[in-house]
Write a structure and sequence with these properties.
This protein has 105 residues and is mostly helical. Helices cover 76% and strands 0% of the residues. The longest helix has 36 residues. The chain is rod-shaped, with a radius of gyration of 36 Å.
């Protein structure tokens, strides 16, 4: 009886700390190597930096396009921009084709 009680007490004293260590180890490992752990955080921050750079480029491109649209909309458009667009459209040709502007007399 005495041995049984000491064995039961021994295992009951070890079971709770063993379960606690297992749970803490599981969540600790997940905090480091999990989907949202510390190592994944570095990758996410790198991807975020790349996406922010692309966003800045897109915003810059959008502001340039908005400026060109504003120039085209005002009172018949900016003559220089209209000429630039016309030359770009009219001088497009097939690949390896050269277009020469005509000189006016």
């Amino acid at each position: 009886m005495r041995i049984r009680r000491s064995v039961t007490r021994f295992f009951s004293v070890l079971v709770i700390p063993a379960i606690s260590v297992a749970v803490v180890s599981y969540f600790g490992a997940y905090a480091i190597w999990g989907n949202r752990g510390m190592l994944a955080l570095e990758d996410t921050q790198a991807k975020l930096g790349i996406q922010q750079e692309q966003l800045a480029q897109l915003r810059d491109s959008r502001s340039r396009l908005e400026h060109r649209i504003a120039l085209m909309e005002k009172n018949g458009g900016d003559p220089d921009l209209v000429e630039e667009l016309a030359r770009g459209q009219l001088m497009d040709g097939a690949p390896n084709q050269v277009a020469l502007p005509r000189s006016t007399h």
